[in-house]
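Contributing new records

If you add data, match the layout below exactly. Sequence lines come first and carry their own label; structure lines follow with theirs. Keep one chain per record. Anything else will be rejected by the validation script.
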Amino acid sequence: MQALFDYIISTENRYNNVVKIDDKKLIVNTEITERDHIFVNRIGTVYSCPLTSDAEIEKGDDVILHHNVFRRWYDSHGKERNSASYIGEDKYIVSSDQIYAYKKNDKWNCLPEYCFVKPLYKEDEWALQTDENLSGELVYLNKELQQLGLSKGSVVGFTPNSEYEFTIDGQKLYRVLSNQITINYGPKTKNSSSS
């Protein structure tokens, strides 16, 4: 099975809504609403690449993708539906603009338009642990940002509402479009974060 322009992605779990406590499993979300997006799985495996692909993504690579690929929803009649990407048997057809990064040789690589930023937290001992506004530490970046002098660990600023929250390898990260990075504060220093 191979598409002309799109990837076919497989997954075993649509949702990441199970937490293991001791030897028991707890389901933390059972609803399908506009709020369930935080529990939707965002990592799949490439089952096949498009016939027209020239990207470095290959069959078997893990990919980080848009949450609506695996998500279920209710139509206007209250009937539960699969996403438009669903093609059957845990397979989904995904356009290249829904993929943000791929894993090769155990390392995440961002596609040209995207990067992932770890939020920084306020250092005030009396403040709740809240993210610093519009800044963070680069964790995964693309070649274009590297050519501009940025590197892993660089502290950057980004435009309002450009960040989108993901959990990757157990870490909270923001996916940010590369062209929404507005400033390079330089490498992370001891005073840049208290997390």
